[in-house]
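Input.
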Amino acid sequence: MPPQNRKKTFFEITRGRRAGPMHVNPYNRPLITNSSNQRRHSITSSAATATPAISAAAITVSKFSREGSLKRLQGYRSILTQVLDNRGTPSKSDQQVLINHLLKLSTYGFEYPDEFETSQISVPVERLCDSSPERFGKTTVSMAQELRERWKTGDFRKRMLETLPEPDPTPEPEDYYYQSGPNSDSNSDSDSEGDVIDIDDHNNDGFFKDRDMSLEYGLMLRGIVRRWGNNKQYLTIADGVQRPSNVFGHNDIPVGTWWPMQVCARRDGAHGAPVAGIYGQVSEGAFSIVSSGGIGYEDSDKDWGNELLYSGSNGHNRKGDAVTLVTTNDTMKLMRSHEQKKPVRVIRGKGASKWAPSVGLRYDGLYMIESYDTAWRKVPNGKAGQQEEFWQFKMVRCEGQEPLESIIERSPTMEEKGAYLTYRKSY
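Output.
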């Protein structure tokens, strides 16, 4: 059951750190736990692109008392046992519950002595290992077996499982839907080549009175193609213009760079997803995120500038229904970045917080994912007191970058704002 009066997440109320002590476990092996910790992070050009070994120790956060931690593990054991005891055909929701809890256990850490043995959390995991792959799924059983092998060797470090759920087969649309328009042609073909947005179309009419604004307008919409279809305008990128975004580190993008729309950030190699807020690969990690706030994230995303709390994808439900915690591919990308200690480009969108730009999106530099866990929040449009669980990531800005206060003062410029507002009025 979710906590009824929980006002803050553990990230907001806990600042202490501790190294993981030795544990007692039934496998009688020397134990390996997290013992390294670093509060702040520094990034150099070489470190920003380095690829640490996947077994690098994760940061350990003391977020529960011993009693609270033991109670939580016993809750996990109870849920796993309940699903395993169900004699009916497991539903997709049941399989998702098993997968989520195996992922939780792989990154739990076990900070207190003998909590592993006392909680008997290994019992349902052993049962799942011996279950039929046809019943709970080959991937689910393989995940349990990998976790068991770690525990048998005394490895209790917080790191993701190598065996992960199958990727989501539904790809994200390549075109960026922008807006409906009074001049749209409902019979036009959305697959047509479209028109490159050309600054000369406006200059010929004396559209701009300010030369600097005219230059900014042409720069911000460079290589963007406008297409009409089904009474909607679509923006995409012309061939040969887009830079690759699947690069860790700054990717030669200056901190403070501003864009009017996400499709422009994609063009420049800052964020490769046309619409989604997380871009990366499950096997490698997240290259970038867009923090844009929005309905449903008021109680889960927090932004203090150099630190922020960011929700995994599918972290809210708009229909007012409490849903089973889902560990999506995008969420696992953030988990992988934390595990491998890889920096993530953070792009703030309009309205996300007081640190965000007044219009458009801005690149605010590299952040490290310091820790993550599940948390509880109100269900948007749900019943009074109704809560749901979601993944939440704590991100800390890397040192050695231009201060955010300075970036806010200079980006976006007055010319960029004027060009953006002009574009919005013209289409």
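Confidence is low (pLDDT under 50) at residues 3-24, 35-63, 168-211.
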